[in-house]
Structure formats: C-alpha cells, structure tokens
Amino acid sequence: MGSSTDLTAFEGARAGQAEMGIQNLGYELVRTDGLTAYWFNRGTGACARITTSDGRYSDVTMLPAEDC
User: Fold this and answer.
1) Order of strands across the sheet that contains 36-41
2) Longest Cα pair distance anywhere in the chain, in angstroms?
3) How confident is the model over 5-48, as pLDDT tens digits?
4) 8 Å CB contact between 40 and 32
5) Three-state SS across 2-65?
6) C-alpha distances in angstroms, 36 versus 8, 39, 43?
7) Cα 1 to chain center, whole Å?
8) Is the pTM above the cut of 0.85?
C-alpha cells in the first residue's frame, strides 16, 4: 500500500498501523501541527500532509518537497 512517492493510498487507514508502513517506505515525520503530520521522504523528495481524525488518516495530501 502506498509508494515512496505517493501515500494517498493510506487515506482511511488506522493511524497506528499505517505509521509503520509509512516509515517502511522511507518517510520520516518532520513536524506536526495539531492533528496534522508532515512526512518527508529524503530519497524521493516526496512530502505528505496527513490529518488524523478518530484514529484514522482522514486526509492524505502529497505536497511539494519545500512544504515539508
């Protein structure tokens, strides 16, 4: 599920379980803002903004690398 350049497949996933999958794809958590987390993959330059709601990823948006 997901790839090193696109995490949108994680939308709707349980946050706790999906976090390991995101890390396994090479992403690292770079910052958080409330319930929103920003993940960056240094290898591909991919940046994802993930919002959590009720324990699930309610919104997964890929952003330009400079947004991370």
Assistant:
1) 27-33, 36-41, 46-53, 56-63
2) 31
3) 999 999 999 998 899 999 999 999 999 999 999 999 999 999 99
4) no
5) CCCCCCHHHCCCEHHHHHHHHHHCCEEEEEEECCEEEEEECCCCEEEEEEEECCEEEEEEEECH
6) 14, 10, 22
7) 12
8) yes
